[in-house]
Amino acid sequence: MSDSRIPSFRRGVKFRFDAVRDAWIVLAPERLFVPDEHAAEVLKLVDGARTLSGIADDLCARFDAPRDVVLTDVAAMLDDLAERGVVAW
């Protein structure tokens, strides 16, 4: 696993705040995901330019969390979303 991988949302996938649900949602073709609070914070940082390492660093600074744990958790979450067709590396 490389910390320099750059995640981005796949074509047709939208991440936005839904006022009706009062929650962040991921809209993908024929699918809808409602990420939990932690996942939403990660997805807010997925911009197609920031590396996995950069995302982990930002989260560590904001939440005063150990980098190795954050990096492992964020990579696992984004890998799972990549398998589901939501993000691409």
In short:
It is built from three helices and five strands. The chain has 89 residues and is α+β, with helices and mostly antiparallel strands.
Summarize this structure as a short list of keywords or feature phrases.
alpha+beta, 3-stranded antiparallel sheet, globular, 89 residues, 3 helices, two-stranded antiparallel sheet, Arc Repressor Mutant, subunit A
What can you see in these coordinates?
The protein has three helices and five strands; from the N terminus they run ββββαααβ. The protein has one domain: Coenzyme PQQ synthesis protein D (PqqD) (Arc Repressor Mutant, subunit A), CATH 1.10.10.1150. The strands form two sheets. Strands 2-3-4 form a three-stranded antiparallel β-sheet, with helices on one face. The chain has a two-stranded antiparallel ribbon with strand order 1-5. Helix 2 packs across helix 3. Helices cover about 40% and strands about 20% of the residues.
